[in-house]
Design goal:
With 120 residues, the chain is mainly alpha-helical. It has three helices and four strands.
């Protein structure tokens, strides 16, 4: 799902948590830096740090060929949770990237395309 800024204001922000029903949550605000925006930023940072920590711990379990099945399974489940969180953070941040200004493109300035990662 791609969100862009409209004449009605900024697009909704995808938050790093789900509703009690498991649906995505969005924040509608007319400015950045409000309480919920800061809370979401803090939670995203925690989620990414947790992912790094879990990856380090899982590597030791996965590198040991004698690790019991239950430990390997537990590591895999935690890694899947962390990957889910990291992908949600990436999606949320990607949706908030500014779109290239067509005026700059027309002036011959290189433009970075967020989806492809290429410059033109």
């Amino acid at each position: 799902m791609e969100h862009t800024e409209s004449a009605h204001g900024p697009a909704p922000r995808l938050l790093p948590w789900l509703s009690p029903d498991g649906n995505p949550c969005y924040l509608l605000t007319d400015h950045n830096g409000g309480y919920l925006s800061r809370l979401a930023d803090d939670l995203e940072a925690v989620q990414l740090t947790t992912g790094t920590d879990i990856l380090d711990l899982a590597r030791s379990v996965l590198d040991d060929p004698t690790s019991p099945y239950t430990e390997v399974r537990y590591a895999g489940l935690r890694l899947a949770e962390c990957l889910t969180d990291a992908l949600r953070v990436a999606e949320s941040r990607g949706l908030r990237l500014p779109t290239p200004d067509t005026a700059e493109s027309a002036q011959g300035q290189p433009t970075h395309h967020a989806r492809s990662g290429l410059w033109s």
